[in-house]
Amino acid sequence: MRALTYHGAHKVSVDNRPDPVIESSDDIILRVTATAICGSDLHLYHGKIPGTNHGDIFGHEFMGEVVETGPGVHAVSKGDRVVIPFVIACGECFFCKLHQYSACEQTNSGKGAALNRKGITPPAALFGYSDLYGGIPGGQAEYVRVPKANTGPFKVPDTLADEKVLFLSDILPTAWQAVKNAEVKPGSSVAIYGAGPVGLLTAACARLEGAEQIFMIDDSDYRLAFARDRYGVIPINFDKNDDPAAWIIENTAGHRGVDAVIDAVGFEAKGSTTETVLSTLKIEGSSGKVLRQAIAATRRGGIVSVPGVYAGFIHAFMFGDAFDKGLTFKMGQTHVHAYLPDLLPLIESGHLKPEEIVTHHLQLEEAARGYDIFDKHAEDCRKVILVPGM
Ligand code: NAD
Ligand code: ZN
Ligand code: ZN
């Protein structure tokens, strides 16, 4: 089969790889009909995630048709059309029973367990996300093996095109969890740092939940303009205004700041540093610029919600200010499975239109170009969908 594979920082190509086979009785093989490139893939592409190997197949946002099932699979059958959560969860362990699927203790027991922090179980395995997250080949390919197929695959109706439901795999539930964590409600004020795919869908979800004032911060004018026109955000370009938090405070009721800040940027925020360790691993850190902004822009008693991925130390994290203001922090990898039954009806009813952020539909063969333009913000790129055999 053809698959997008890693060959070192900024080097990916579509290569021939062996077709995946059933390895456990609850595996399925999926023929991929659509897959997307995520900001999380860019961390791998930049060579920032330890345990990424030459030849690894990337991709954790994908959907398709079930073409083979292991003998223990009862939840889906051959021919079903399904979206796959990027988190691989068993559905039965301590954390899965709490619906905290991204903490599943059963799926990342091999390579990931060895690399992760000693003494506690590692987080759940993820598709296409390095040995640190289980070393499971991803779905930017013609075919992919899906473990734990009685828990993950989510059936979608034939009436909805791939691009409408594909983002149930990751960025739509991620935006939704970020907004739920931020406790956005009618009349809320919120500031969203990052106008990438996650930030944009976060703005859509915040609007749906009734947010009144949404500030959005990025240095990408075309992404900000889209968010302004589509979701009514107040755009702030941090290249022209290097202290957006000060401006936000000036422009909120009572100069209090916003009820919540959502950090949809993560550790690769412009201005990253290079020391830092996670457990025993060398990993790049962050200047903490967005977190400093988040603490500054949030009102007393407010919430900082962090869907953006972090690793290692964060520099100059103003914990004293956070204490003084009595802030709440909520963050982490998304518990995808938990939100899908609520989100599908919102897509069916047209309340959420996640496909509107897509700018590029490319053949899988063009995946390397897709990474390049998404990474460089070229061609006004917001989100790339790859279609095998298009
Ligand atoms: P993206 O790279 O397309 O978007 C990030 C945006 O942040 C870009 O538009 C960039 O210009 C902007 N940015 C950079 N530095 C900034 C700064 N200092 N202030 C404001 N904006 C800044 O990525 P994406 O797909 O939107 O993903 C965003 C983050 O969410 C990534 O860290 C990704 O790994 C993470 N993510 C987390 C989960 C989860 O489960 N928690 C799931 C999906 C993605
Ligand atoms: Zn993703
Ligand atoms: Zn589990």
3D structure, described in words:
The chain has helices spanning 39-45, 94-97, 111-115, 162-165, 171-181, 197-208, 221-231, 244-250, 289-297, 319-325, 340-348, 367-376, and strands spanning 2-6, 12-16, 28-37, 61-69, 81-84, 87-88, 125-126, 143-146, 154-155, 189-193, 213-218, 234-237, 258-263, 277-278, 281-282, 298-306, 328-331, 360-363, 384-387. It is of the alpha/beta class. The strands form five sheets. Strands 3, 4, 5, 8, 9, 18 and 19 form a seven-stranded mixed beta sheet that branches. It has a six-stranded parallel beta sheet with strand order 12-11-10-13-16-17, with helices on both faces. The protein is 25% helix and 23% strand. The model is unreliable at 273-282 (pLDDT under 50). The site of one zinc ion has 7 residues, from loops.
